[in-house]
Amino acid sequence: VQLQASGGGLVQPGSSLRLSCAASGITRDYYAIGWFRQAPGKEREYVSCISSRDGNTAFADSVKGRFSISRDSAKNMVYLQMNSLKPADTAVYYCAFTTLYYCSGLKSPDFGRWGQGTQVTVSS
Fold first, then answer.
1. Measured between alpha carbons, how far is 88 from 122 in angstroms, rounded to an integer?
2. Which residue in 96, 97, 99, 95 sits closest to 29, CA to CA?
3. How do residues 46-66 score in pLDDT, each as one tens digit?
4. Residues 5, 8: Cα–Cα separation, whole Å
5. What confidence score (pLDDT) does residue 85 get?
6. Is the C-alpha dihedral spanning 107, 70, 67, 40 positive or negative?
7. Which residues, in sequence order, are CB contacts of 33 under 8 Å at separation 6+?
8. Nearest Cα to 31, choosing from 53, 11, 14?
């Protein structure tokens, strides 16, 4: 499985950005794709997740109501729509793959394949 994240950039507070995760090499029907982020000097943080089985989603409390996640199964794409961005959202964002097909309670070690990351900077 290979993942490639894209769509990052420099935006002003309050702006929106959509990240994309292109997945390839997935041969199973059920799995989940997650988004994580890591700011300088901080640990990697879980952001969101979507299950291929039923489209079930999950979000970190810090992004609930501002971020949404979606998938295009035909294109093997997962999107993270980020609205009302704050400087605290500044980080490198990674998408990751897990063979688990649910999102509840998942953490970084549950994901076995990672993309290369895309930088999101929110600054005025």
1. 8
2. 99
3. 999 999 999 999 999 999 999
4. 8
5. 98
6. positive
7. 3, 21, 23, 49, 50, 52, 71, 78, 95, 96, 97, 98
8. 53
